[in-house]
Structure formats: structure tokens, C-alpha cells
Amino acid sequence: MTIPASLLDVVAGYRRAGHATALIVRHAERHPIVDLETHHALLLTDVGHAQAREAGRSLGVLGAPVRVLHSPVQRCAQTARGIVDGLREAGVVAELIGADASFGDPFLLDRPRALRIAATHGPGFLRAWCDGQLPPSLFEPWAQAARGQVTAAGRHLAKRDVDDDAITVIVSHDWNIAIVREAFLGFRPEQGWPSFLDGVVVASDDNDVVVAFDGRSARLGQPLLPLVPDEPPTAIDA
């Protein structure tokens, strides 16, 4: 298992068009979750480490330098390091940027209680969240959370120099990717859960941000500028 070729094709297309491009991917294979409340402690399996390196080698075919950042969760850091190792094995310039908490779980407003509720819902948790059935004191509205993920990726693209053609790779989690796909592209998790190293593409386009996956694309709908400090993002129409 590695990054799907369809995602790499989308990245290549936006780069050919001259757009700064990021790829948000789920981490590689981890050990099974037994207790959702302690899932952050789970690390990659041996297979996951091999998958991460292979993902780096597959990114190498794009022929561009790559910057890799990740969620603060350790398995995402492990995946990021493996991707960088694979890129370097492929002879590609790769830089490990480090952690960005925006791609962890900032949408859990009371993490311990939120995870307990998510555990009680089981596989139906994400649908309950997207359908507005979960306490707003514990969970940020899902569409607002999705906008936050894309805005955070856009900030990284906005930091680039004009002549910088590096690809940004962000190692995150299945929940993060699933809500972005549904909020922006109408692709429900029931249609296909993000597998290990699956993801979504985010690119700058005419001072806006585009989200793309599975032949679909949508714009963030606001200028590619940092949010005003302490100003909450505006929820989008799901």
C-alpha cells in the first residue's frame, strides 16, 4: 500500500499548471486500536514503516523537492520520517519540517470526553458528527473543522517563495481527511473510508485554495490569507 496513483496524478496536474500544491495523507499502517481514548500512543507496524518509505519513493517520480510535516501524533511523525527517507533513497531533495497541531485533532474541544462519546458511537461516529448529533461543547461543527484543515494547509502554501516549486506533504489522520472530503466535495465516508496513505490534494489557485479528490474539486472561497487572530472560521455549506 502506498499513496494512490490517482492522487499523485492530481498533484502533478496542479504543479504543471504552476500552482503551489499540498498533499494531505493519512499515516501508514498502525497497530490496531483497542481503546480509542489512548489511540494516540499507537505506533506504526513494521509493514507501516515499509509503506512510508515506499510512499516517499512513489512521490519521487514527480521530480520535485518535497517538504513533509505531520500531526503531533507519533505514528504520523514516524510516517513523515519514512516518507523523507524514501524520497532521499529516490534521489529527491526532501525536508522534514516537523509537527503542526492543526492536523491533529483541534476540533475535539474536550478531548477525553469527546473520545469517550466517539467510542460509544463506534463506526457511526463520523456520520453522527456530520449530521449534527454530537454535543457542540465537545466537537467543533464538522464543516467548520473541515475548513480549518484546508485553511491550515493553505497557510503553508502561502508561506512559499514565488519561485519555490516544492510539494508540501502533510501526514494526518482518517477523520481529518474524511471530513474535508465530505464538506468540500460531497464524498461521504460511507463511499470510501480513507485508507492508510490515502488522502486529498490542496492547491493554491488564483489566490484561492482548491480541494481535489476522485475527479472532484472545490474552492475554499476566500483569499489565501491568514485568519485574523482569535477570529473563528466561517462554516461552509456542506
Put the structure in a nutshell:
With 238 residues, the protein is of the alpha/beta class. It has helices at residues 5-16, 46-59, 74-89, 111-121, 125-130, 142-158, 174-185; strands at 21-26, 66-70, 94-99, 167-172, 199-205, 208-213, 216-219.
Structure description:
- The protein is of the alpha/beta class.
- The chain has one domain (5-174, 187-219): Phosphoglycerate mutase-like (Rossmann fold), CATH 3.40.50.
- The protein is built from seven helices and seven strands; from the N terminus they run αβαβαβαααβαβββ.
- Strands 3-2-4-1-5-6-7 form a seven-stranded mixed sheet, with helices on both faces.
- Helix 2 (46-59) packs across helix 3 and helix 6 (142-158) crosses helix 7 (174-185).
- 42% of the residues are buried.
- The model is unreliable at 223-238 (pLDDT under 50).
